[in-house]
Amino acid sequence: MRSPQYDILFEPVRIGPLKAKNRFYQVPHCNGMGHRAPSGMAGMRRVKAEGGWAVVCTEVCEIHPSADISPHSEARLWDDRDIPALARAADAIHEFGALAGVELGHHGFRAQNRTSREVPMGPSSHTVVSYDPVQSRAMDKEDIRNIRRWHVAAARRAKRAGFDLIYVYAAHGLVTPMQFLSRRYNQRTDEYGGPLENRVRLLRELIVDTKDAVGATCAVPVRICIDELVGPNGLCAEDEGRDVIEMLADLPDLWDVTVGDWSNDSRPSRFGGEGVHEQYVAHVKAVTGKPVVGVGRFTSPDAMVSQVRRGVLDMIGAARPSIADPFLPKKVEEGRIDDIRECIGCNICAASDNTYTPIRCTQNPTMGEEWRRNWHPERVPPRESKDRILVIGAGPAGLECAMTLGKRGYEVGLAEAATELGGRVAREAKLPGLSAWGRVRDYRVGQLHQLPNVSIFLDSKMSAQDILEAEFDRVVLAVGSSWRRDGVARYHRVPPQTLDDTRIFTPDDIMAGAQIEGPVAIYDDDHYYMGGAMAEMLRQRGLEVTLVTPAPLVSNWAVNTLEQPKIQSRLLELGVSIRANEALVAFGEQHAELACVFTGRRQTIPAASVLMVTSRLSRTDLQHDLLSSAALWQDARIKSVTSIGDCLAPGTIAQAVFGGHRYAREFEVPPSESVPFQREIAALGDWPS
Ligand code: ADP
Ligand code: SF4
Predict the structure, then answer these.
(1) Residue 498 pLDDT > 90, yes or no?
(2) Whole-angstrom Cα distance, residue 614 to residue 484?
(3) Which residue owns the Cα nearest ligand 2 atom 2?
(4) Domain 486-616 superfamily per CATH
(5) Would you say the CATH fold of 486-616 matches that of 388-480+619-666?
(6) Confidence of residue 233 (pLDDT cuts 50, 70, 90)
(7) Domain residues of the chain, as ranges?
(8) CA of 346 to the centre of ligand 2 (A)
(9) How far is CA 130 from CA 34, 107, 112, 387, in A?
(10) What is the pLDDT of residues 297-310, one digit of tens each?
């Protein structure tokens, strides 16, 4: 049972006409499924409700085609035909006694309206937030009346769909009421512009309208950005941010307080720890009698208790911690703190939304697969046979595979060549800012130690002969990959012949402790975190570092994980010199030669060493050795040899965990369909007869 110190987290909280059963509040979060995969979205929310969250919200829900943010797939309540899809989510959330929330939003000039082709509109005429060559028009009074009308209509539909909490959304700079609030977006001269009393008018009207429409039985929370983190041009927590809350104090039924844009609200762990928003939100409770919810990647129940006891928050808001572990509240309630799968703050979940794909999570391989593959985060099917399985390699793929097979009840051996578990995660967690990523290893090692049917063998580099003698029925190879030294990735598809490789290093060398001489040219044709992390580390060691990349930005793919601007700004501040849109084409004689990716024009930079962050090679030797002795398998009782994770194909840590999980979950129970997951096929519209 739970420790009494956590009792406070299980106190009910009144929200308007409703009562939340505890203080765990899954705030709205996008998931790449939305209106295009409503059953997937509902299945994911259902699992959160089962996991004990008192409130489970949807992602933002578009209220009208005049603010369509496609190709992002968010929820929609454009008309009555959208009700059944959302009702599925509300029903699923109610199944486990949670309250269902929906975040109604009109995106103003943030919406490019790529599908609806409506002209975007905002408080003033602005370029849209993306690089689309599109501007909004300034709303007139009729438009404002329409927005109020559409919001009320959507609120009524939300109520019919079964939602309990119906939001007015004014955060992240993304939505119309927020755009009206912020000085930098609102240059109106009528009663909706100018002083804050005017700029707050639309938000006030929307709250009053929504309460009038549904407030008798539904709660009306407001999600607000209290500090835009842009100084006096926008809302500041100690200035207008506070004033807005004071002006509206007890009008909403709950304040859901956010800070900055999405990249600050979902701050990557490289750039902020647990509870990072406290300094901005701490004063909100002093100016309202209504419950206050806030986020801060809370995974520790002690930190949560501290927030409540010190009067910072009434309810613990969570998006990412609820993604990494939908059962977090249940685990606290049952006193199973060590079983919590803590979010690592990598924002692979956000990258799913940003790449318009169903959500995935590094820590939780079942995320987004609850409905499509019928995967549950806490339950796995029991074993089908007494086959004994040898997993070789204890990186994220091998750890997840061994753990999940062990939970299914199989007898498992896990052999690892190194003297510690974790593979790439153990190494990469030592890079600057990535220590939280070690949780991928820590959670799995903690679980493995609870499984008596899994035996772990450290310092055990396995050869094909060792495996043949080991007496296991199944062999799973999870032996990982190594960084290439020859420059091959996207720009060079074959190795350039112009590299003096005696002074070329790879991230593996650096993480193994190799000493590298400066000046260093880091050639990043990988584009995720490794190039930036290496640059940061070598610069901190005092080396002169130039980061060369064929991409326009450093760590270009990290745009999707909301990390990119922060990575580039950190490197610039550290004095790393950046050469974008250039490829390293030759190296020797204390200099590296770069070619412009557009013109081919060449320039040289001083370089005593090159660090290649390009691509990786799967470790396939063991597989080849085993295949060449396939004739001996039967005598050795081996029925199968399967590669998973990076040794199958190098990818993200999330992909390695997923691969390990998939093998283990589907072992002896493969999915029956030729398409290995359920799909939602769009309903055909009427066809002219
Ligand atoms: P993944 O991301 O696929 O899990 P990693 O590179 O993180 O891959 O982990 C692979 C692990 O496999 C490393 O810890 C490595 O030491 C281990 N390994 C590689 N070859 C062998 C081997 N022959 N026997 C045992 N362990 C091995
Ligand atoms: Fe946390 Fe990463 Fe999972 Fe997102 S993907 S919930 S940041 S562990």
Answers:
(1) no
(2) 7
(3) 346
(4) FAD/NAD(P)-binding domain (3.50.50.60)
(5) no
(6) confident
(7) 4-354, 388-480+619-666, 486-616
(8) 5
(9) 21, 13, 8, 54
(10) 999 999 999 999 99
Could you read off the pLDDT of 530-550 as tens digits, one per residue? Answer: 999 999 999 999 999 999 999
Average pLDDT of the chain, as a whole number: 96
Give CATH superfamily name and number for 4-354. Aldolase class I (3.20.20.70)
State the Cα–Cα distance between residues 487 and 327, nearest whole angstrom: 44
388-480+619-666 in CATH: which number? 3.40.50.720
CA of 646 to the centre of ligand 1 (A): 9
Residue in 48, 344, 528 to alter for ligand 2 test, most ligand atoms within 8 A of Cβ? 344
In a mutational test of the pocket of ligand 1, which residue from 461, 479, 618 has the highest number of ligand atoms less than 8 Å from its CB?
479
Cα three-residue angle 600-604-605, rounded to 5 degrees: 130
Protein residue with least CA distance to atom 3, ligand 2: 361
User: Is residue 572 over pLDDT 80?
Assistant: yes
The predicted-structure confidence for 263-276, as pLDDT tens digits, reads as follows: 888 899 999 888 88
CA of 272 to the centre of ligand 2 (A): 14
Which residue out of 346, 367, 529 has the highest number of ligand 2 atoms within 8 Å of its CB and is therefore the one to mutate?
346
The helices-and-strands tally (H runs, E runs) of the chain is 22, 28
Which residues, judged by CB distance below 6 Å to any ligand atom, belong to the binding site of ligand 2? Answer: 320, 323-324, 343-349, 361-363
Tell me how far apart the alpha carbons of residues 289 and 152 are, in angstroms, rounded to a whole number: 25
Q: Where are the alpha helices (DSSP H) in 415-519?
A: 424-428, 439-448, 464-468, 507-511
Ligand 2 atom, smallest distance to 266 CA: 7
Task: Write out the two tokens for 2.
Answer: 């739970």
Q: Write out the catalytic residue numbers.
A: 30, 169, 172, 265
Ligand 1 atom 8 nearest Cα: 480
pTM: 0.97
**At 655, which amino acid appears?**
Q
